Amino acid sequence: FVYAGINVTDTPLFSGTRGAQLAGRATLITCGPLPARHGTRQPFRDVITDIENALDLEQHKPGTLPRHAPYLHQRTAGRIGSLTRLIRQTAITAIHDGTERITKTALDAVRLDHLAETHHRPTRRR
Predict the structure, then answer these.
(1) Domain boundaries in the chain?
(2) For all residues of the chain together, what is the average pLDDT?
(3) Is the pLDDT reported for residue 124 higher than 60?
(4) How far apart are the C-alpha atoms of 18 and 10, rounded to whole Å?
(5) What pLDDT score was predicted for residue 1?
(6) Which residues pair with 8 in a beta bridge?
């Protein structure tokens, strides 16, 4: 079974008899934000490319979302949940409004979770 949560070690999940039993069988995997770069690799851009490849929007041009990787990383703080919600909601809107494509303007129009919104600070153009 899979249990997902935030700061699970700070909760009673692993305390008491049942908690000790669960702790003896569970492997904790700590997941943080995905970095934009890791050495020469760009894992965040790779995830964006994979998500984009799964989209089925008639007018969406492949490569559009990976070009916005720096913006998307800043906007979501590298959090996969925030990224997938942002792209999913923008895609749903694109289907409903008939544009069938994702643009930066459309991405800007979507409000994200509180954590992402408080992290995101738009940069000013010079």
Answers:
(1) 1-30, 43-119
(2) 90
(3) no
(4) 16
(5) 60
(6) none
Token duo for residue 3: 């249990």
Length of the chain: 126
The DSSP H or E segment spanning 118 is helix 114-119
Residue 90 is which amino acid?
Answer: T
For residue 41, the cross-strand partners are: 38
48-107 pLDDT tens trace:
999 999 999 999 999 999 999 999 999 999 999 999 999 999 999 999 999 999 999 999
Task: Please tell me the distance from the alpha carbon of residue 9 to that of residue 28, in angstroms, as a whole number.
Answer: 9
Query: Which two three-digit tokens encode residue 47?
Result: 């995830």
Q: Please give the model's pTM, rounded to 2 decimal places.
A: 0.78
pLDDT, position 56: 93
Looking up tokens 């996969």 gives 80
**How far apart are the C-alpha atoms of 100 and 94, rounded to whole Å?**
5
Tell me the three state secondary structure of residue 18: helix
**How many whole angstroms separate alpha carbon 82 and alpha carbon 103?**
17
Enumerate residues 6+ apart whose C-beta is below 8 A from 117. Answer: 111
